């Protein structure tokens, strides 16, 4: 005991303990100092993206949707629609709308880059909580049940988009678009946000697994071949019936002409 007490009172041991304490405190401070600037940089980056999105919004969207997304007589409010709605509408070229109409058509040309769209989505998301842009995990349909997705599609979607996803006419000049050119991201965002005449299918109504199954079914339709012959657009029995009747009448007319020629 006396030996240990003497060692503790030694100036060398006291100095070593002091140095060790300073090194420990300095190391902890340096670690915290490295984390805080990183967090601050992330916060500044997010704030910068929102500011950029706000500027783009004021230039291209505020005339219809209001300066703060509150909506006007010509455009609905964007408070609470979420980032997914912005990404869907702008990335598909539906927005900005060139002129008022029954429905905003999709366009191949888009004046905004992916970075611009992400910035506008961040700004609108800051206005109020809403569906976020789907993650890669949510869009992964590799292990989804395509047959079950077909059942869900026929129950929830085929009334408007037709059983083969070719789209169809609605009322007052509106229509359900064809899904043949839709990407998994576009399909999922449409279900999450309910654009235009489409109802919203939240994750409470259709869980992520069900959305993946529906996506798998639609992608299967896009990639399906027609080994039996012409698919006639897969518009169903009406188109097929018209084709058949036309072919029969053409054959009868040709036969009547041939008989007339031979009887002379």
Mean pLDDT: 85
CATH class of the largest domain: Mainly Alpha
**What proportion strand?**
under 5%
Silhouette: elongated
Q: Share of helix among residues? A: 55-70%
Uncertain stretches of 5 or more adjacent residues: 1-5, 35-43
Question: Helix count?
Answer: 11
Order of helices and strands: HHHHHHHHEEHHH
How many β-strands, per DSSP? 2
Number of domains: 2
Distance between the termini: 138 Å
Radius of gyration: 31 Å
**Secondary-structure arrangement, i.e. CATH architecture of the largest domain:** Orthogonal Bundle
CATH topology of the largest domain: Cytochrome Bc1 Complex, Chain D, domain 2
How would a crystallographer describe the biggest sheet? Answer: 2 strands, antiparallel
Keywords:
264 residues, mainly alpha, Cytochrome Bc1 Complex, Chain D, domain 2, 2 domains, two-stranded antiparallel sheet, 11 helices, elongated
Describe the protein's architecture and organization.
There is one protein chain. The chain is mainly alpha-helical. The protein is built from eleven helices and two strands, in the order H-H-H-H-H-H-H-H-E-E-H-H-H. The chain has helices spanning 2-8, 11-60, 62-65, 82-91, 114-127, 136-139, 146-156, 158-161, 184-193, 208-223, 237-263, and strands spanning 168-169, 175-176. Strands 1-2 form a two-stranded antiparallel ribbon. Helix 7 packs across helix 10. Mean pLDDT is 85; it is low at 1-5 and 35-43.
Quick structural gist:
This protein is mostly helical. It is built from 11 helices and 2 strands, in the order ααααααααββααα.
